[in-house]
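Milestone 3.1: sequence recovery, worked example.
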């Protein structure tokens, strides 16, 4: 059964965050808040945890479209090929914020990303998630959780999320009500920005 952990974004409880970090280090899968919708996450360095996320999403791991969620841009070169100055300036303007940027992946990506030529990068404006990643020392692999409701695409109430995912994940973080609008997705892999999905993030940063 998943543990429901209440953490206040204004003043994240360090002890609770360290417990979540330990769960991730041991291969756990969590549901966490962001500056957009709630998402599934695990440690990017843990292949078995990524297999769990893929199974939950009912996809083959080698065909994943997971994003990489970082606490800042310091991990960028670990997953993304060198980018030009104009692209970096866009990232600096946008992050932290409700964006996913598709960038060219390096050749020696983690095993689960080997077939990916591009990768989505997120730095959410959420103090809980960024502190978890900072203490973990690695980015999270992430995938938004969807609602089966025909009207509401994303569940915003963490208690309802916990009720639904109780037997599937290890921890659900209650960081308050989530948004029901996903991140804006922008492809920068070829240099010129291509908007793949308009979401919460403004296009004024381009």
């Amino acid at each position: 059964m998943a543990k429901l952990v209440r953490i206040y974004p204004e003043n994240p409880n360090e002890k609770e965050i360290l417990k979540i970090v330990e769960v991730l280090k041991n291969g756990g899968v969590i549901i966490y808040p962001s500056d957009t919708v709630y998402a599934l996450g695990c440690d990017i360095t843990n292949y078995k945890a990524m297999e769990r996320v893929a199974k939950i999403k009912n996809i083959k791991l080698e065909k994943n479209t997971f994003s990489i969620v970082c606490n800042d841009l310091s991990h960028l070169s670990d997953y993304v090929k060198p980018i030009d100055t104009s692209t970096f300036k866009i990232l600096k303007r946008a992050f932290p914020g409700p964006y996913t940027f598709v960038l060219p992946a390096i050749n020696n990506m983690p095993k689960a990303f080997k077939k990916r030529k591009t990768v989505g990068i997120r730095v959410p404006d959420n103090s809980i998630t960024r502190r978890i990643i900072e203490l973990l020392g690695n980015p999270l692999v992430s995938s938004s959780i969807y609602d089966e409701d025909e009207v509401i695409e994303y569940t915003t109430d963490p208690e309802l999320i916990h009720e639904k995912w109780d037997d599937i994940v290890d921890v659900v973080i209650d960081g308050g009500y989530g948004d029901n609008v996903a991140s804006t997705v922008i492809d920068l892999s070829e240099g010129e920005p291509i908007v793949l999905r308009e979401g919460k993030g403004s296009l004024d940063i381009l």
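The chain is about 25% helix and 20% strand. The first helix runs from residue 14 to 25.
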